[in-house]
Design a protein that fits this description.
Helix content: 25-40%
Number of strands: 9
Order of helices and strands: HEEEEHEHHEEEHE
Largest sheet: 5 strands, parallel
Number of helices: 5
């Protein structure tokens, strides 16, 4: 990533810690220590399950929990614009409530959504987020 693009990205993230952010022209690879959720993940892998041993957290959520107490935890929903508007809705609760199945993410969690074209993000999702084109 070019230095000026990196600086712009850092500035966007530092100035918008409370809101989920849609970033156009940015890849999940640009976030070294992030927890990445590919947009095409099966919806059954997003939630907490209960079995005979108790609560079973998905691996991505365990990764967030492991980082709790660190400066910033980046949860990147990668390539959201590559799935249909209907399928994007599986992320609605995660984005709106900053959590899943009643579990709230640590307060230092920042949600990033990477896209090539923000016009291909449903209005239901984009209405919850700030949006930036990073060039």
């Amino acid at each position: 990533m070019a230095q000026n693009k990196r600086l712009k990205l850092i500035n966007i993230l530092n100035n918008n810690t409370s809101w989920p952010i849609i970033l156009e022209n940015v890849s999940s690879k640009d976030f070294e220590t992030s927890v990445v959720l590919p947009a095409n993940i099966n919806s059954s892998e997003l939630g907490i399950k209960i079995d005979d041993k108790g609560l079973c957290y998905p691996s991505w959520l365990n990764n967030i929990k492991k980082q709790e107490g660190e400066n910033t935890i980046l949860l990147v929903i990668d390539k959201l614009d590559e799935i249909s508007f209907e399928e994007q809705e599986k992320f609605y609760g995660i984005i709106k409530y900053k959590g899943v199945n009643g579990y709230k993410f640590p307060s230092e969690t920042q949600i990033i959504i990477t896209v090539k074209n923000k016009d291909n993000v449903s209005k239901k999702i984009s209405s919850l987020c700030l949006s930036y084109k990073v060039e």
